[in-house]
Design brief:
- InterPro entries: JINGUBANG-like, WD40/YVTN_repeat-like_dom_sf, WD40_PAC1, WD40_repeat_dom_sf, WD40_rpt.
- It holds the Pfam family WD40.
- With 377 residues, the protein is mainly beta.
- It has two helices and 32 strands.
- A hairpin with a 5-residue loop joins strand 18 and strand 19.
- The longest helix is centred in the middle third of the chain and has 8 residues.
């Protein structure tokens, strides 16, 4: 039975072991090898599962027909090749999809249905847009020093765009990059509103967004930073609220709990830290999750469950009870690091006596897998 070492303190001498004995069922219901590349991003949007790969491909797959499509390899009509390098992140807002790329750009897509009633992705724009670039390039103060011998306008990312987040109302897009910047975009006209330069001391790998506008960024510099929009008359810019420093190595993934009171962070130190807001609005570590043998690469939250993917080729399913977290299951089947995770409640199989979930995973073994998880209530 999988177990979890619980630590309510940063001092391992105060750690205690707990076991969770619950008849959790789990099995892989779909598995497919993605040819010629690995999966670098994964997201659910409506009736589709969108995937981004290391060789510039974005695919849209009907979730209720995954087995059929995979078995018949009938995927070419739902594939787009774009940009240069890997598609690092995908986010969905209504029928708009935003993709982050290794070529320093963000692309905007719309789901269209053609006369044959087959959906496809149509590109609307590349960020920064031509008009945004044109308005800034002629004004010297809009140019920033990128390297010793290179300048660029502040609306440009100058390295891989590593992660994206979109507000609940779909009006604001946030992007982070290995160039150490956080940028904020207005989705109605795709204008770059703000760029937080040198937001971290090293590459930024992850971003998470709360419904009330707090932005969490995680970096290779081992720090998590929380940003908040100022309501001052002088200008509604984002300012640094606080810096969280507990991890011993670079942070790769962030996720918020369903009620947004808890922040989860996964890092190359093999730890998942559970941060909770205190009465005075500070974030404190209430638990450190240990179990993975290698770096934590991906996190996903569904209901009261936390899913973690690791370079140790496993996925762990965690549940917290009053700041004590238990490992409900360890999913084994990947033959490479699990780079991407997303999850959802499976309402068709849930009942009054049990809850059912679907976990979608992918990574460096080029496999896409769908897992069915059943948990008694």
């Amino acid at each position: 039975m999988p177990h979890l070492q619980i630590s309510n303190s940063q001092d391992d001498s105060q750690s205690q072991y707990s076991y969770y004995h619950l008849p959790v069922t789990h099995h892989c219901i779909v598995s497919i090898k993605h040819k010629n590349s690995y999966i670098s991003s994964l997201v659910i949007g409506g009736k589709f599962l969108y995937t981004g790969s290391s060789n510039k491909e974005i695919r849209m797959l009907k979730r209720d027909n995954l087995r059929y499509e995979f078995d018949h390899e009938n995927l070419n009509n739902s594939m787009i090749i774009t940009g240069k390098g890997a598609v690092k992140s995908l986010v969905v807002s209504a029928d708009t999809i935003y993709s982050a790329h290794q070529d320093h750009k963000i692309r905007v897509w719309k789901v269209d249905e053609n006369e044959a009633q087959q959906e496809k992705l149509t590109q609307l724009a590349t960020l920064p847009t031509f008009s945004d670039r044109a308005l800034t390039i002629l004004i010297p103060k809009n140019h920033v020093q990128v390297t010793r011998h290179k300048k660029s306008t502040w609306v440009h990312h100058n390295d891989t765009v590593s992660a994206l987040a979109v507000s609940g109302d779909g009006l604001v897009l946030y992007s982070v990059s290995w160039d150490r910047t956080l940028k904020i975009w207005r989705t109605t006209d795709l204008k770059c509103l703000e760029s937080v330069a040198n937001a971290h001391d090293d590459a930024i790998n992850a971003v998470a967004l709360s419904s009330h506008g707090d932005v969490y960024t995680g970096s290779t510099d081992k720090k998590i930073k929380i940003w908040r929009k100022s309501n001052s008359i002088e200008g509604k810019k984002h300012y640094l609220v606080t810096t969280l420093e507990k991890h011993r190595s670079g942070i790769n993934a962030l996720a918020l709990s369903t009620n947004e009171n808890v922040l989860y962070s996964g890092a190359s130190d093999r730890l998942i830290m559970v941060w909770e807001k205190s009465a005075d609005d500070d974030m404190v570590v209430v638990c450190t999750l240990k179990g993975h043998a290698k770096s934590i690469l991906s996190l996903s939250v569904v209901s009261d469950l936390l899913c973690s993917g690791s370079a140790d080729e496993t996925i762990r399913i965690w549940r917290g009870v009053e700041n004590c977290y238990f490992c409900l299951a360890v999913l084994e089947g990947h033959n490479g690091p699990v780079k991407c995770l997303t999850s959802e409640t499976d309402h068709s199989r849930s009942s009054d006596t049990s809850a059912s979930y679907l976990i979608y995973s992918a990574g460096l073994d080029s496999d896409i897998k769908v897992w069915q998880i059943g948990i008694p209530l």
